[in-house]
Amino acid sequence: MRTAPAGRDRHLTPATAPQVVSSAGIRAASFDRPRVDQRSVFAAAMAVLAGVGVVASGYLSWVKVAGGTYVCFVVSGCDTVQQSSYSSVFGVPLAFIGLAMALVVLGFVVAWWRTGDRRLLYVPYGTGLLSLFVIAYLNYLELFVIRAICAWCETFAASVVLGWIVTVVALSRTPAPAR
């Protein structure tokens, strides 16, 4: 069985693909696996992570508006954290701010996915970078001041941190726009 020489273009057509001869003497073109579009992979990952952020912050926002009790999974500190004085900034619940941020990031990720304009990734990058510092501070407050953990808040935080990491990798692996 013959294969393509090393370094050869991976995008082969039937005319340029190396021939494989089976034991029965049948000739067939041999193709490498099709390349997966990196932008689609990164955009899908970022969209899923932003979607997780929308769900987590959306739930916290909904309960805040409805005035109900938070259903907390794994740990039981959601009510304690959400009732603390640290759960809002200038009277605006942090859940609303997180929901707005996640929706903006999701919008820019989808726009980048559709257009391929790399500059659209700078908004998720910038909001994620700023959020890293805010999340670090809020985690400090949860652990050492409030002494309670909100699983929804940590889910949102994890989606932001992972989304930012994927954004950094996407920026480093996608071509810059032509000037």
Structural account:
With 179 residues, the chain is mainly alpha-helical. It has 2 domains: 1-35, no CATH class; 38-173, VKOR domain (de novo design (two linked rop proteins)), CATH 1.20.1440.130. It contains 5 helices and 4 strands. It has a two-stranded antiparallel ribbon with strand order 1-2. A two-stranded antiparallel sheet has the order 3-4. Strand 3 (88-89) and strand 4 form a beta hairpin. Helix 4 packs antiparallel against helix 5 (151-173). The longest helix is centred in the N-terminal third of the chain and has 29 residues, at 38-66. The mean pLDDT is 86.
Summarize the structure in short.
This protein is mainly alpha-helical and 179 residues long. Helix content is 59%, strand content 6%.
Number of domains: 2
What does the largest sheet look like? 2 strands, antiparallel
Give the strand order, joined by hyphens, for the main sheet.
1-2
- Total number of helical segments? 5
Uncertain regions: pLDDT < 50 for 5+ in a row?
none
CATH homology superfamily of the largest domain: VKOR domain
Mean pLDDT: 86
Tell me roughly what share of residues is in helical segments: 55-70%
Computed Rg: 23 Å
Distance between the termini: 45 Å
Task: Name the CATH architecture of the largest domain.
Answer: Up-down Bundle
Strand content: 5-15%
CATH class of the largest domain, named Mainly Alpha
CATH fold-level assignment of the largest domain = de novo design (two linked rop proteins)
**Which structural category fits the helices and strands?**
mainly alpha
What is the ordering of alpha helices and beta strands?
Answer: EEHHEEHHH
Strands, total number: 4
- Give the overall shape: elongated
